[in-house]
From TrEMBL:
This is Cytochrome b5. Residues 47-123 form the Cytochrome b5 heme-binding domain. Pfam families: Cyt-b5. Belongs to the cytochrome b5 family. One of its GO terms (molecular function) is metal ion binding. It comes from the Eukaryota. It comes from Stylonychia lemnae (Ciliate). Signal peptide: none annotated. Keywords: Heme, Iron, Metal-binding. The gene is Contig1679.g1824. One of its GO terms (cellular component) is membrane.
Length: 128
């Protein structure tokens, strides 16, 4: 987690005294690009990296992850409300759901559609 040092923050206006803050921290060699140095957006933060083995452990109704196009999604909250039904979406629990997602949502951009559920990247994902 980046450490921001300083105490002169105005959260209501989203302003900081840039002289007291490093808004471009380095994490694992990754520099955060910022066009507005008033605050650091969470969207620019690097996503956690998971292995397929880690994703496989999340295959329960109360803890359900899947992989689509190399990105890891926590789909637990939508299991019961999925329009295709619980049994359809639960088939991809703890596994690569790319093909099933594309077959059921062929006209949809997966990253945009699933963005609220994105939790990271799968490090050993292989696209076939």
């Amino acid at each position: 987690m980046p450490e921001i040092i300083g105490s002169n923050v105005n959260l209501k206006e989203g302003k900081t005294d840039d002289s007291q803050f490093d808004l471009s921290p380095q994490i694992s060699g990754t520099s955060f690009p910022t066009t507005n140095r008033k605050f650091l957006s969470l969207k620019t933060m690097p996503k956690p990296i998971y292995s397929i083995i880690e994703v496989r452990a999340h295959n329960k109704t109360d803890d359900c992850w899947t992989i689509v196009d190399g990105y890891v999604y926590d789909i637990t909250k939508i299991l019961k409300t999925h329009s295709g039904g619980f049994s359809k979406i639960f088939q991809v629990a703890g596994s690569d759901g790319t093909q099933m997602f594309q077959e059921g949502h062929f006209a949809v951009d997966s990253r945009h559609f699933l963005s609220p559920y994105e939790i990271g990247i799968c490090e050993d994902y292989i696209k076939y």
